[in-house]
């Protein structure tokens, strides 16, 4: 349980840091190609986050085998 709690804290920190990095990066994008690449990266992240949320919810609910399957 302690390992799971530590992992969840690490995920929360990484998500926060990633969001802050993208916010800082966004105003520096000055080319259409750069915008296209950033948009693709943000879209990929947006598609990934809901699954990660399900895993986090399963771990918090003590459903570790379900979390592993996601």
Description:
With 70 residues, the protein is mostly helical. 84% of the residues lie in helices and 0% in strands. Helix 1 (2-25) runs antiparallel to helix 2 (32-60). The longest helix has 29 residues, at 32-60. The protein starts with a helix and ends with a helix. The model has no long low-confidence stretch (mean pLDDT 94).
How would the blueprint of this fold be written?
Elements (H helix, E strand, L loop, with lengths): L1 H24 L6 H29 L3 H6 L1
Helix pairs in contact: 1-2
Mean pLDDT level: 94
Number of helices: 3
- Indicate the proportion of strand residues: under 5%
Element-by-element helix/strand order: HHH
Q: What is the strand tally? A: 0
Which structural class matches the secondary elements? mainly alpha
Helix content: over 70%
Distance between the termini: 19 Å
* Radius of gyration of CA atoms, rounded to a whole number: 15 Å
Shape: elongated
Low-confidence stretches: none
**Main pleated-sheet profile:** none
